[in-house]
Amino acid sequence: MSGSSRRDSLNQKLLDIAAHGARDAGATVTSIRLADYPLPLYDGDLEADHGLPTEAGRLQLEFGRHDAFLIATPEYNGGYTAALKNALDWVSRPQPDGTSGVALFSGKVVAMVSASPGQLGGLRSQTGLRSVLDKLGLLVIPESFALGLAHQAFDGEGRLKDKNAEKAVTQVGVALGRTAGRLATR
After folding, report:
1. Which residues of the chain have pLDDT under 70?
2. Which of 47, 68, 136, 175 has a CA positioned 20 to 30 A from the CA of residue 169?
3. C-alpha to C-alpha distance for 3 and 157, rounded to whole angstroms
4. What predicted TM-score, i.e. pTM, was given to this entire model?
5. Assigned domain for 126 exists
């Protein structure tokens, strides 16, 4: 899942590369694009008056079907995006059957990648997001990648020009796939 809803998102491109690594490790990968799940801003009164929005329920179903998550987090003004936070907030709400939405996260593994035109490559957004992922009970693996100067890093086909960087991003996906596989067999 990418925290960006931009059509030509640098983070989506980076996520696609990491997802190849997860597939190489034997994982089945589902792409979740937040633009496909238009959600109102989380509001407890809205939820009380109208219930869980349909798109939030669809996202909960996706999260429930997966053992691991690969998140690309853009950096906006030193933090991760409101769209990503909003999606996590809605998914964490009680499911239609009354089951906790937090249970959709708890004990599952997650890896993060980020791309930014800045020098740090979105590292600050990863730091902020990690605290939320920890709070939701996700196990954040140590493998991650932050791509600085991302606006100059991709070729015309969406591949990284720096093959060492591409290998490192792919390895994040491989590590996530392997970790999720090991946990599933326990």
Report:
1. 186
2. 136
3. 21
4. 0.93
5. yes
CB 69 within 8 A of CB 138: yes
How far is it, in rounded angstroms, from Cα 152 to Cα 150?
5
- In-domain check, residue 120: yes
Residues 6+ apart with CB under 8 A from 88: 132, 136
DSSP 3-state percent helix, strand, coil across the chain (nearest 5): 50, 15, 40
pLDDT digits (tens, 9 = 90+) for 18-69: 999 999 999 999 999 999 999 999 999 999 999 999 999 999 999 999 999 9
At residue 186, the pLDDT reads 65
4: which 2 tokens? Answer: 């960006």
Query: Which domain CATH number covers 115?
Result: 3.40.50.360
Asked, for residue 4, whether it belongs to a domain, the answer is no
Are the CB atoms for 125 and 114 separated by under 8 Å?
Answer: yes
